[in-house]
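Key result, reporting period 2: structure in, sequence out.
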């Protein structure tokens, strides 16, 4: 990468910081997270966002909260950890990485043979670090696996931000683009602006340009024209939760992009690590979709663009049916249909 992209989550000397992504691209500001309310609010407000990053940040937040607990008995400590875990878990409902990381932290606590609260705090610190490091490794491998579909001079359209800012490093959908560039390939990216909160233009364009990647921002409504002109050879997006049958929840608008890709005979890929796959959820119908405040649509960037009090429908995500997905790029290679079988292999560890 040309210039280092700021880390979404930083843990230094026992202190936790989230990059405030609501201020990007104008300012790179870190906020310190010292308690559960700050962590919950930061995730809810999208200071920290993107499925893998939310999981990593919540794991570290649980560990930081644990460090502040004064309980002397292990049972009281574990009870309090459980309460904080449940609280953090309800900050956002759709990205499964959040509950995956928090459950993993709690399970590690219960499987540990340590017998003192001080030792268990250390166990949580180590597990949060392990989740972070695993995410870095998996994202890198997603980038390497993605080379199978990358060709020199190709055009790629992406939606929302599934890059370094949404993970510990490299990203998911953007990782193949970063690796391609390292390999000397030239890839042109079309970044959907991504209404209503503009993660595509504010975050994706910001990080791709920092990395020296040829990037063109388009509004969501321009995707069809760009495809019709023949500028897009593949679509790659991230995911917040993939159900057992391959149906994929991702940022609102993704489903529309998948339909456009089908109409233009362009392959539509999803990129994600195993922590985004939820084989306990049978299909997209069963995925809980977060609905957010009306103001995000009517007054998204601080200016009223619709009448106050207007009725608004603001789902943060939609579900792309598995039939529209050409492949799922994972740390273990590109999975193909039938996804109920290929995903099961990924999830069994
Ligand atoms: O609401 P956000 O910004 O958290 O939504 C993020 C997305 O939809 C991403 O595409 C998804 O989390 C994958 S991130 C690697």
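The corresponding designed sequence is given below.
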């Amino acid at each position: 990468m040309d210039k280092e992209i700021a880390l979404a989550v930083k843990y230094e000397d026992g202190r936790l910081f989230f990059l405030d992504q609501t201020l990007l691209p104008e300012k790179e500001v870190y906020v310190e997270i010292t308690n559960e309310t700050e962590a919950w609010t930061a995730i809810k407000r999208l200071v920290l966002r993107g499925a893998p990053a939310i999981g990593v940040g919540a794991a570290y937040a649980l560990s930081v909260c644990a460090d502040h607990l004064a309980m002397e008995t292990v049972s009281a400590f574990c009870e309090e950890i459980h309460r904080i875990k449940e609280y953090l878990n309800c900050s956002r409902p759709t990205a499964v990485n959040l509950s995956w990381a928090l459950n993993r932290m709690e399970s590690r606590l219960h499987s540990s043979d340590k017998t003192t609260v001080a030792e268990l705090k250390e166990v949580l610190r180590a597990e949060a670090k392990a989740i972070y490091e695993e995410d870095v490794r998996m994202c890198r491998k997603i980038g390497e696996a993605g080379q199978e579909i990358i060709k020199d001079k190709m055009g790629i359209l992406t939606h929302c931000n599934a890059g370094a800012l949404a993970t510990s490093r490299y990203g998911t959908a953007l990782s193949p683009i970063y690796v391609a560039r390292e390999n000397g390939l030239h890839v042109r990216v079309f970044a959907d602006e991504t209404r209503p909160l503009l993660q595509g233009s504010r975050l994706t364009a910001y990080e791709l340009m920092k990395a020296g990647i040829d990037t063109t921002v388009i509004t969501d409504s321009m995707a069809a024209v760009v495809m019709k002109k023949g500028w897009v050879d593949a679509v790659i997006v991230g995911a917040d939760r993939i159900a057992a049958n391959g149906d994929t929840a991702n940022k609102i608008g993704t489903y529309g992009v998948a339909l456009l890709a089908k109409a233009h005979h362009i392959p539509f890929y999803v990129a994600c690590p195993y922590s985004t796959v939820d084989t306990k959820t049978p299909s997209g119908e069963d995925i809980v979709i977060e609905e957010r405040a009306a103001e995000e649509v009517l007054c998204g960037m601080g200016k009223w663009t619709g009448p106050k009090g207007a009725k608004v429908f603001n789902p943060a995500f939609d579900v792309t049916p598995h039939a529209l997905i050409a492949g799922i790029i994972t740390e273990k290679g590109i999975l193909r249909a039938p996804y109920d079988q290929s995903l099961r292999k990924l999830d069994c560890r």
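Residues 46, 49-52, 95, 160, 162, 166-167, 171-172, 199, 238-240, 250-251, 316 surround MRU (CB under 6 Å). Residues 71 and 77 are 6 Å apart (CA to CA). This case is discussed further under Risks and Mitigation.
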